[in-house]
């Protein structure tokens, strides 16, 4: 399916919307102002859409080749999963690319989620049998040699 559906809490469909470049949408989030963020796997992009479904912005990056899940960190950064190769792209609150996190075992990243403590630790689910907990560096910025991750816990 190449659309996104909006549902009421009782499960009834409110509406669906799509865009010509929305091929295989995988991740979905809503910004504080109601802007809808869709991570599109096949076309390797992030679409920011108004609450009525109009396209506001298309975000691409060379490291985003097959986008999947999306989650917002406690600090307001956006973490976007990439299926193949498995990695997580980090964007600031204005959608500027900050870093790309890659670690052994991050194969087929599907979902990204933050722990409820507000520490900034995040977990990814992997289609290849791993769930990883990652602790970002205190600065929030990693260089290419450190990948922006201080510790990885394979569970």
Strand content: over 45%
Model regions low in confidence, pLDDT < 50 over at least 5 residues: 135-155
Gap from first CA to last CA: 32 Å
- Percent range of helical residues: under 10%
The secondary structure category is mainly beta
Strand order of the largest sheet: 3-4-5-6
Total strands: 14
Give the number of helices. 0
Radius of gyration: 15 Å
3D architecture notes:
This protein has no helices and 14 strands. It has strands at residues 4-7, 13-17, 25-30, 36-40, 45-49, 55-59, 67-72, 78-82, 87-91, 97-101, 109-114, 122-126, 131-136, 149-154. The termini are far apart.
Summary tags:
four-stranded antiparallel sheet; globular
Provide a quick synopsis of the model.
With 155 residues, the chain is an all-beta fold. It contains no helices and 14 strands.
List the helices and strands and how they pair.
Blueprint: E1 4-7, E2 13-17, E3 25-30, E4 36-40, E5 45-49, E6 55-59, E7 67-72, E8 78-82, E9 87-91, E10 97-101, E11 109-114, E12 122-126, E13 131-136, E14 149-154
Antiparallel strand pairs: 1-2, 3-4, 4-5, 5-6, 7-8, 8-9, 9-10, 11-12, 12-13, 13-14
């Amino acid at each position: 399916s190449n659309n996104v559906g909006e549902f009421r809490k009782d499960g009834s469909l409110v509406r669906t919307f799509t865009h010509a470049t929305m091929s295989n949408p995988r991740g979905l989030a809503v910004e504080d102002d109601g802007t809808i963020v869709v991570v599109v796997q096949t076309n390797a992009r992030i679409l920011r859409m108004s609450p009525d479904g109009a396209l506001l912005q298309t975000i691409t990056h060379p490291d985003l080749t097959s986008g999947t899940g999306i989650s917002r960190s406690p600090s307001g950064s956006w973490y976007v999963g990439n299926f193949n190769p498995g990695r997580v792209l980090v964007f600031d609150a204005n959608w500027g690319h900050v870093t790309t996190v890659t670690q052994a075992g991050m194969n087929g990243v599907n979902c990204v989620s933050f722990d409820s403590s507000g520490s900034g630790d995040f977990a990814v689910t992997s289609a290849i049998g791993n769930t990883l907990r990652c602790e970002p560096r205190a600065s929030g910025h990693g260089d290419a040699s450190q990948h922006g991750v201080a510790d990885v816990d394979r569970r």
